[in-house]
Every structure is written in structure tokens, then in C-alpha cells.
Write a structure and sequence with these properties.
Layout: H1 3-13, H2 16-27, H3 30-44, H4 66-76, H5 80-86, E1 90-93, E2 102-105, H6 110-113, E3 117-123, E4 131-138, E5 141-148, H7 153-167, E6 170-174, E7 185-187, E8 191-194, E9 203-209, H8 215-218, E10 223-229, E11 232-241, E12 264-266, H9 276-285
Antiparallel strand pairs: 1-2, 3-4, 4-5, 5-12, 6-8, 7-11, 9-10, 10-11
């Protein structure tokens, strides 16, 4: 079976057999892939997560937290293949060993129940009980919700996502190509952020001119615009001259954490490219909860 179809079987139907097979393929062995998982968790700053197997079944020393799962999901959703897989409701795949084909129905009922739902994963074990990570996109804004040991998770996720969209609407702050007052520069990337009530009025910016002898200057950057909410840095936006070819490039994330680890993902802020191998790694890095 192709790696791509194995990933669908893994994510739509919680295929523990697929988890083991893919882990052996990518990591050389289950143990080898678990080492990769924990290295990735450390790199992403997931301080309350530790993996002992590639499928999430109960094991001593295998754990995560709701907050880590939200950060991890935001990271995994940067991968376009991962995004396509987790929002798929039904997937058909050829059976390499028999005449009948596979037809997998996604266990994530949020895809049918909630407007704009586009992910992510259900989970259950005897110790973890019902776990759910969901995502939804409305008007270009994508939110992630996480619950652990929640017997009413479908209803709770609907309420959590509704609350997020209502109380943290995505607001545009800068548009790519917008001029900067008192400077002959233009904003190099669009920037938006999900503000709570009263937060947008607290936004302030700090402009730092790029040193002429620096490599950044030689590559076309003329300054950086730091977007602050109080003492918290929300993002850094490059500034270019108005005729710069860099203004024609595709937007990438301007959030403060360049690895894109955030509890929310905003419209075109996150872009990623990757092969099926990259997607497989993203999926396994996102083995945030037990597969039932």
C-alpha cells in the first residue's frame, strides 16, 4: 500500500497497524521513530509531552497535555498534505492483497456536525478516555480546540469553537505593500491577529532600520516592524522599498515564533511544502492522543 493511503488509514480510522508500519518505514523501527518523535517534541517546546510508541496506546511514560496538543496541531496544520487528510470525510483506497477496495469513513463527527470543521483527530484508551482535537475555519480564520477525558466532547467543541470565533475575531493590521508613515518603505507581509475585546487598541509598533552593511540589507530588506501587544511581541514584519521584487513573493508567517507554534492559525499566515515523507513525519509528530 502507498504511504499516502497508509496515512489516510491511520488518521481516518485510527489504524494502529498503519502507525506501526509507517514508523518502521520512516524510523527504521518503532524505537527509532519514537526517538524522532521525542526529538521533535523537544524542538517544538512541548515540555508536557513524552512518547513511548507511535500509536498512542497506553504505556508507562507516554503522555501529553491539552496545551501541547493545541500547539502541536497548529504546527502540523502547516503541512498541506496533513490538512487534506484530516478534513477528508471518506477515503477509498485500493487493496493490494484482495479484490475488494478499502473505504474509510472518518471517525471525526465534527466534520459533519460543525460548519467549517476541517480536522483533526479522535482518541480513546482506557486511561485517557475520550479525547478530541478539532479545528474549524470561518472567514479565513482557523481555530483549534482540545479536550481530554470529556464524555460530551462533540457538544463541548462546538461551544468552544463558537466562543473563539465570536470573541477572538481575526483583524487585519497590515496589508502587504502598505506604506509606512514617515518612511519610504512598504510592508513586506500581511499581518492579522485574533484580538480579544479591547486588545486591538493596545497595539503598538516599533520600527528598526536595517544596518546598511548587513546581509539582510544586501538581500533587499530595509527594516523590520515589530508588532507589540503590551510587552508581548506578536510578530515581525519586513520592510522593503516600494519597487522591490520581494513584494511579489508569497506571504509566510510573521508570528513571533517562526516555527508557527500557536494555538491559532490565521488565514494565509501559514504555508508549508512537503513530500509524503514530510507528511508522514508531521502526522506522527501529531500523534497527540491515543488512537482508538
Amino acid at each position: 500500500m502507498s504511504l499516502e493511503n497508509m496515512l489516510y488509514g491511520l488518521m481516518l480510522r485510527s489504524g494502529n497497524d498503519a502507525a506501526t508500519a509507517i514508523a518502521e518505514h520512516i524510523g527504521g523501527s518503532e524505537e527509532g521513530f519514537v526517538l524522532m518523535m521525542n526529538q521533535k517534541a523537544e524542538m517544538l517546546g512541548l515540555h508536557n509531552s513524552h512518547f513511548m510508541n507511535p500509536h498512542g496506546l497506553d504505556a508507562e511514560g507516554h503522555y501529553s497535555s491539552a496545551n501541547d496538543l493545541a500547539f502541536l496541531t497548529a504546527y502540523a496544520l502547516k503541512n498541506p498534505i496533513f490538512r487534506d487528510i484530516v478534513k477528508t470525510k471518506v477515503k477509498k483506497a485500493p487493496n493490494p492483497n484482495d479484490k475488494w477496495d478499502y473505504s474509510w469513513l472518518n471517525k471525526n463527527k465534527m466534520l459533519q456536525m460543525y460548519e467549517g470543521a476541517d480536522g483533526v483527530k479522535t482518541g480513546y484508551t482506557k486511561k485517557a478516555l475520550r479525547c478530541l482535537v478539532s479545528s474549524a475555519t470561518r472567514q479565513g480564520q482557523q481555530l483549534v480546540a482540545v479536550t481530554l477525558n470529556d464524555g460530551t466532547d462533540w457538544a463541548d467543541h462546538k461551544q468552544m469553537l463558537d466562543y473563539g470565533f465570536e470573541h477572538f475575531p481575526l483583524k487585519d493590521i497590515y496589508q502587504k505593500g502598505q506604506g509606512v508613515q514617515n518612511y519610504p518603505y512598504q510592508v513586506g507581509k500581511s499581518f492579522s491577529y485574533p484580538f480579544a475585546a479591547g486588545e486591538m487598541e493596545q497595539i503598538r509598533t516599533k520600527l528598526v532600520v536595517t544596518v546598511r552593511t548587513s546581509m539582510d540589507y544586501l538581500l533587499g530588506e530595509r527594516g523590520k516592524l515589530y508588532v507589540m501587544l503590551g510587552t508581548k511581541q506578536l510578530g515581525v514584519i519586513p520592510l522593503y522599498e516600494k519597487d522591490s521584487a520581494l513584494l511579489m513573493t508569497k506571504d509566510r508567517s510573521v508570528f513571533a515564533n517562526e516555527q508557527g507554534i500557536a494555538a491559532h492559525v490565521s488565514h494565509s499566515s501559514y504555508h508549508a511544502r512537503g513530500s509524503l515523507i514530510d507528511a508522514a513525519r508531521a502526522v506522527f509528530n501529531a500523534l497527540f492522543t491515543a488512537f482508538d
